[in-house]
Amino acid sequence: MPRSRLPQFDDGPSLTGWRxxxxxxxxxxxxxxxxxxxxxxHDDETSKPLSRQDxxxxxxxxxxxxxxxxxxxxxxxxxxxxxALVEAVxxxxxxLSFTWSTLLPAVExxxxxxxxxxxxxxxxxxxxxxxxxxxRMLFPRTERGEPTYADSSLWTTSEYxxxxxxxxxxxxxxxxxPVEVGMELSDxxxxxxxxxxxxxxxxxxxxxxxxxxxxxxxxxTLAVGSERGxxxxxxxxxxxxxxxxxxxxxxxxxxxxxxxxALAVVKARIGAWASASTQDTREV
Length: 284
Prior knowledge:
CATH 2.40.240.20
């Protein structure tokens, strides 16, 4: 939903003291690492100093090598992109101010269902699907999947959220797709909805994936099985829920590879990538 207002930033007395004392601090020594393309913030984080212990602060200083007076790209989670100005830095905190675009990001037209598979495969799916852009991800248990995969630390800690954030930041985007895990396949099919529903199937997907899709923008739900694919019972569930079985040729792909390839085909076919290229807002 569009936000009714964007956060306001003023130079009131509470921050004046911070800036007066912190602007005297020098920029620390920096080290290089793989950069994020955009740094994301929650709405309630933008009106208070950022702890130097926060990974984002370390990235701003050590990777982006920003000092007081420098700017960098930021995004408001599920909101607009913008610029942050480093107002001041000391040993404990950074003080930032923000300006935001008036444009809100569009909702992605693709929902992704992936049969619960090995944690390492799910990590790649989470990260790469978030980069390519989906509205939602569901990881149901399947008959050929290992039930204990749901007990992995990927799912029992916040790691899965970090994987999604990494993918969204890579894409210079702000919408964080919700992730659900461990439900029955039948429940996932009901919950996902979708105007067009496609299930990848190496063995009975006789229709080529690109031919199973419309030529215009619509909402699509894409279902991909776990490592050993769908059982006959699951195929019956899929077809009963309105899913068309489709394939991508004779080659047998890893789950994460199939997800990336299929999402690329789906998004290209429905025109989701027809917009202009990314505006270069980077600063040296």
